[in-house]
Design goal:
Blueprint lengths: L7 E3 L2 E14 L2 E15 L2 E5 L2 E8 L2 E4 L3 E8 L2 E4 L3 E8 L2 E4 L3 E8 L2 E4 L3 E8 L2 E17 L2 E16 L7 E2 L2 E2 L6 E14 L2 E13 L4 E13 L4 E7 L1
Parallel strand pairs: 1-2, 2-3, 3-4, 3-5, 4-6, 5-7, 6-8, 7-9, 8-10, 9-11, 10-12, 11-13, 12-14, 13-14, 14-15, 15-18, 18-19, 19-20, 20-21
Antiparallel strand pairs: 16-17
Length: 242
């Protein structure tokens, strides 16, 4: 991207057209009308972007409403974001709250806040220390989930999957999901992987090579090819070696 591109800064209440820029900063209340391409986007106030967004670095510390797809190298949300399209990036860090209507793809996803995804979520590494609702499938090579409150996903697929209860106290509510550790659990239809360790998980089917169930699990069907162990604090209706 050219270094001689112009900058956009909205301090109070204002509007800007879409286009290609170097830096875009929204410090007050601003609207961007059209597709936006920039080296860096910072939303520290309230920003409405009526189009797609593409940037190397995208930071939302205030509130952002994006009516399109978002593509970037590094995306971080410590405020609140509502994205109507898909998200694609290398690193996705959520410490605040985000609602994505479409699909999410990132090489690395780190969640310490609250996430809602209307489609699928795909990553190389997925780490969650917050709460999430994923309507479709979560697919990642390595999945590490520390449960805070109720987490929901349609299906999970991965090589190494670990789900444990986080004993830290909850810290509030974003969207429809809550950091209430008294109801900390994962709900999922299907979990499939090579190495699987689960705590406080409710699922229809868990399928893998090596499966270990810690406390608090309620599984209808377990299918394993190498080994299976479970806590006496969990329940499985049908176990099958395949």
């Amino acid at each position: 991207m050219e270094n001689n591109l112009g900058d956009v800064k909205i301090l109070g209440s204002g509007e800007s057209s879409g286009g290609e820029y170097n830096q875009v900063k929204i410090l007050g209340s601003g609207d961007v009308n059209g597709d936006l391409k920039c080296k860096e986007l910072k939303v520290l106030g309230a920003g409405d972007i009526n189009g797609n967004v593409e940037g190397e670095i995208i930071k939302v510390a205030g509130a952002a409403d994006i009516d399109g797809n978002v593509k970037g190298e590094r995306i971080s949300v410590s405020g609140a974001a509502d994205i109507k399209g898909n998200v694609k990036c290398k690193k996705f860090k959520i410490a605040g709250a985000i609602d994505v209507d479409g699909n999410v793809y990132s090489e690395e996803i780190e969640i310490s806040g609250a996430v809602e995804i209307g489609g699928d979520c795909e990553a190389e590494i997925f780490n969650s220390n917050g709460v999430f609702q994923i309507e479709g499938m979560l697919n990642a090579g390595e999945i590490n989930i520390k449960l805070k409150g109720k987490n929901e996903v349609g299906e999970i697929g991965g090589e190494k999957i670990e789900v444990k209860k986080n004993d830290e106290k909850g810290i509030g509510r974003f969207f429809k999901v809550s950091f209430n550790n008294t109801v900390a659990k994962l709900e999922c239809e299907l979990i499939e992987g090579d190495e699987i360790y689960l705590e406080y998980t409710h699922a229809e089917t868990v399928r893998g090579k090596s499966i270990v169930l810690g406390p608090g699990c309620n599984i209808e069907n377990v299918e394993y090819s190498e080994s299976f162990n479970m806590s006496n604090e969990s329940k499985v209706n049908v176990t099958k070696k395949i």
